[in-house]
């Protein structure tokens, strides 16, 4: 089970590569859809497929994404 915030929202650490891709996408004016695809791929890789060790053909799509918060540890 993924860790959660005090409000019960799931949390997941993503790689620095995902952050780099998001910043690059933002800087070139990428659409929200493109940025959501980057987040979905990062979540797929870090959580669902465990870095390629399981569910290798899994596709992850965000639907109805309302909010995503970020912090740097």
Structure explained in plain terms:
- By secondary structure, this protein is an all-alpha fold.
- Helices cover 40% and strands 0% of the residues.
- The chain has helices spanning 16-27, 32-48.
- Helix 1 packs antiparallel against helix 2 (32-48).
- The protein starts with 15 loop residues before the first helix and ends in a 25-residue tail after the last helix.
Uncertain segments are none
What's the order of the H and E elements? Answer: HH
- Specify the number of helices: 2
Name the overall outline. globular
Per DSSP E runs of 2 or more residues, the count of β-strands stands at 0
Structural class: mainly alpha
Radius of gyration, in Å, reads: 13 Å
- Measured by DSSP, the beta-strand proportion falls in under 5%
Mean pLDDT: 81
Amount of helix: 25-40%
Distance between the termini: 21 Å
Main sheet overview: none
In terms of quaternary structure, what is this? single chain
Question: Could you give a short description of this structure?
Answer:
The protein has 73 residues and is mostly helical. It is built from 2 helices and no strands.
Give the arrangement of secondary structure elements.
Layout: H1 16-27, H2 32-48
Helix pairs in contact: 1-2
Q: Which key features would you list for this structure?
A:
mainly alpha, single chain, 2 helices, 73 residues, globular
């Amino acid at each position: 089970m993924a860790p959660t915030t005090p409000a019960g929202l799931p949390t997941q650490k993503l790689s620095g590569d995902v952050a780099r891709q998001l910043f690059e996408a933002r800087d070139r004016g990428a659409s929200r859809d493109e940025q959501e695809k980057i987040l979905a791929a990062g979540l797929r890789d870090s959580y669902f497929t465990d870095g390629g060790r399981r569910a290798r053909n899994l596709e992850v799509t965000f639907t109805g994404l309302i909010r995503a918060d970020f912090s740097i540890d």
